[in-house]
Design a protein that fits this description.
This is DNA-binding transcriptional regulator, LysR family. This protein is an alpha/beta fold and about 280 residues long. Helices cover about 35% and strands about 20% of the residues.
Length: about 280
């Protein structure tokens, strides 16, 4: 029988990309994680990861195993807490409207698996949250920040847009285009470039809406590079003759021991996914 603890360490290693991060989020030593996963590989008679200085690369079997067991591991990990009626701990989260919650959802799942007492409550503002997923420029005063990624802005178009076949766009290409406005992100639409229409085709309240409207052909938009992940209905192209801008994203958190610990655990999982 495969050991549940080994599967917990395996799932965390798969999510974080290193044995050391798996050990940290499970509060054990790295040799403990390495030995457990080695025993798991011996039982399966095959390698689950390719090891390198840059981290772990899952094998196809590891990917199959992860998707097969991650839900069960989470359920069984919380069994004792449920049976004991352990009090729940509420974690207040804020995801900024220009961030995609799907990019941190696996990390939240992993965090909940490792601490089944956690309950996530989403807040409207970063100021009222314990942890906020946002751009560094938008973090509340007095909070700490863990940087995750620097993202260049690109131009999102419908995949059948006449400009979508280009390798890059120029300012002249944008002159007659309809833009979808993101009023919650100062300067993100780059109106200061002087070539975009002053009257937008639409105004949205978050980037999930924005991407769907671009995919429907309503207009174009300046979006962070990572927004194109998993979207086959959009094309993202760079701007060749002007600076479209860069944003630094990460986790802002209160300086309490609780928020600091959770933010570090989340960052350990999210950062490798952002680099992928």
């Amino acid at each position: 029988m495969i050991d549940l603890t080994a599967l917990k360490y395996f799932a965390a290693a798969y999510e974080t990309g290193t044995f050391s991060q798996s050990a940290r989020v499970n509060n054990v030593s790295q040799p403990t994680v390495s030995a457990a996963i080695q025993r798991l590989e011996d039982r399966l008679d095959t390698a689950l990861f390719t090891r390198s200085k840059s981290g772990l690369t899952p094998t196809p079997l590891a990917t199959r195993l992860y998707h097969d067991v991650v839900e069960s591991v989470g359920h069984l990990s919380g069994l004792e807490a449920r049976l004991r009626n352990t009090p729940q701990t509420r974690l207040r989260l804020h995801v900024a409207p220009d961030m995609m919650v799907g990019r941190i959802a696996p990390a939240l799942q992993g965090l909940r698996r490792r601490d089944p007492t956690l309950v996530f409550t989403f807040c409207d503002t970063a100021e009222e949250a314990d942890i906020a997923y946002l751009s560094e420029d938008c973090m509340p005063k007095g909070q700490a920040f863990i940087a995750l990624e620097d993202e260049a802005f690109m131009i999102a178009l419908h995949r059948l847009h006449p400009l979508a076949r280009r390798n890059a766009l120029t300012l002249a290409d944008l002159t007659d285009q309809q833009i979808i406005h993101r009023p919650y992100c100062p300067r993100a639409d780059r109106m200061d470039l002087g070539v975009l229409p002053t009257a937008p085709a639409a105004e949205v309240t978050n980037d999930a809406q924005l991407l769907d409207l671009v995919a429907a052909g309503l207009g174009i938009a300046f979006v962070p590079r990572g927004h194109g992940a998993g979207r086959d209905d959009l094309i993202l192209l760079p701007l060749a003759d002007a600076d479209a801008g860069i944003r630094r994203t990460g986790l802002a958190h209160r300086k309490t021991d609780f928020a600091t610990r959770i933010a570090r655990d989340l960052a350990a999982v999210i950062a490798p996914q952002h680099r992928a």
